[in-house]
Write a structure and sequence with these properties.
Layout lengths: L14 H7 L5 H13 L4 E9 L5 E12 L5 E10 L1 H48 L7 H33 L1
Antiparallel strand pairs: 1-2, 2-3
Helix pairs in contact: 3-4
Length: 174
């Protein structure tokens, strides 16, 4: 138990000592797993859980054990080994968080692509159409005023869409 910082005299070879050092959030599941193996008369048991160190911190461990039964089929002894898998479990957790973050960013990028392909295209098409219709040489003030109003509206829509894209990109950076 040196990997958990316990001194030899601190260790009591009794199931109660082990139980009080299993993380409170894990003990129910760990015991259910063990009891299921005993109920089915399985001789091998293994499970992962958090185990308390002498300093009060917890480490992830993999517990592998051999269950011994008497002639009446009762579990009388458990011989096992606990392996420190704390680094591996923490790396796995970090990897899951990283993948989750990548998936969120991917969804944001899909939304940005949708905005680019649909919402930017509409005001740009309007602007191009207005520019084609705008004829400053014929001097039609009423038509040109209408076209300028439409041009202002389309550029405002385009500006708002670009700000939405900027906001999405900012969210991705956070």
């Amino acid at each position: 138990m040196s990997m958990f910082g316990f001194k030899e005299e601190d260790i009591i070879e009794h199931v109660d000592w082990w139980k009080i050092n299993v993380h409170p959030e894990d003990i129910t599941e760990v015991m259910a797993s063990y009891e299921d193996k005993v109920r089915n008369k399985d001789i091998h048991w293994n499970t992962a859980y958090r185990f308390r160190c002498a300093d009060g911190s917890y480490k992830y461990v993999l517990d592998r054990a051999h269950i011994l039964y008497n002639e009446q089929g009762e579990a009388v002894r458990v011989i096992g080994a606990i392996q420190d898998v704390d680094d591996a479990m923490r790396h796995q957790k970090e990897r899951r968080q990283f993948i989750s973050r990548l998936q969120e960013q991917n969804e944001m990028l899909k939304e940005i692509a949708r905005i680019n392909s649909h919402e930017i295209r509409r005001p740009v098409s309007n602007i191009l159409g207005i520019m084609a219709m705008l004829d400053l040489e014929k001097n039609e003030p009423a038509l040109n005023a209408q076209l300028c109003a439409l041009l202002r509206q389309s550029t405002a829509e385009l500006d708002a869409t670009l700000f939405r894209i900027r906001d999405k990109l900012q969210q991705m950076r956070e």
